[in-house]
Design goal:
The complex is a heterodimer of chains A (about 120) and B (about 120). Chain A is mostly beta strands and about 120 residues long. In chain A, about 0% of the residues lie in helices and about 55% in strands. In chain A, strands 2, 4, 5, 6, 9, 10 and 11 form a seven-stranded mixed β-sheet that branches. In chain A, strands 1-3-8-7 form a four-stranded antiparallel β-sheet, with no helix packed on it. Chain A starts with a strand and ends with a strand. Chain B is built from no helices and eleven strands. The chains are: A mainly beta (about 120), B mainly beta (about 120). Chains A and B meet through strand 4, strand 5 and strand 10 of A and strand 4, strand 5 and strand 10 of B.
Chain lengths: ~120, ~120
């Protein structure tokens, strides 16, 4: 299994509070991604990073921000959590974005409940 | 942007039967099509992928076919076993260039294999 950990694995929070989820990798892969998984929607890309301090928005980025100050860590922040952000969040990594390196490996997920 | 449709949403088969899951995509520039298997409480795991310069790929009991003209691709599982029961996701991306390997996922198929 790819060396990806996510923390926390489970979190319950209240509407309006800030929340930060962490993704940590030991593979030294350049690309990192945050997805959310909701019934009927599959996985949807929130934000991604193509290098340290290089990030961009995905399909469902409203209400989320990210930071990547080190190769191994990619943080996802919900500035002010809402009930619509209740979901399972997955981090993924890949060595490249083309050729044979674009395979994405997923972490175990973080289950977030916003009350 | 890319849109991926996946059918059926649920699939029930008897052990030993074959299972087929189909996906269509909208962006003719997409060139990389992975399939993921997700077991309960875990992150998605890549089981097979195909690139647009190939029409079919097999790996033991699993095969994927791609029809670029019709913009659809399918997952075939033969001789199904109870341990094949899981949620399966198809995805598409434009690997390489400035796409940064962003994946667009289908909605998922819950496969149940009855002993």
């Amino acid at each position: 299994d790819a060396g990806i950990t996510q923390s926390p694995r489970h979190k319950v929070t209240e509407t309006g509070t800030p929340v930060t989820l962490r993704c940590h990798q030991t593979e030294n892969h350049r690309y990192m991604y945050w997805y959310r998984q909701d019934p009927g929607h599959g996985l949807r890309l929130i934000h991604y990073s193509y290098g340290v301090k290089d990030t961009d928005k995905g399909e469902v980025s409203d209400g989320y921000s990210v930071s990547r100050s080190k190769t191994e860590d990619f943080l996802l922040t919900l500035e002010s959590a809402t009930s619509s952000q209740t979901s399972v969040y997955f981090c993924a990594i890949s060595a490249g974005a083309g050729g044979r390196q674009e395979t994405q490996y997923f972490g175990p997920g973080t289950r977030l409940l916003v009350l | 942007g890319e849109n991926v449709e996946q059918h059926p949403s649920t699939l029930s088969v008897q052990e030993g039967d074959s299972a087929v899951i189909k996906c269509t995509y909208s962006d003719s520039a997409s060139n990389y099509f992975p399939w993921y298997k997700q077991e309960l409480g875990k992150g998605p795991q890549l089981i097979i992928d195909i690139r647009s310069n190939v029409g079919e790929k097999k790996d033991q009991r699993i095969a994927v076919t791609l029809n670029k003209t019709a913009k659809h691709f399918s997952l075939h599982i033969t001789e199904t076993q109870p341990e094949d029961s899981a949620v399966y996701f198809c995805a598409a991306s434009k690997a390489g260039g400035t796409s940064y390997g962003k994946l667009t996922f289908g909605q998922g198929t819950i496969l149940t294999v009855h002993p």
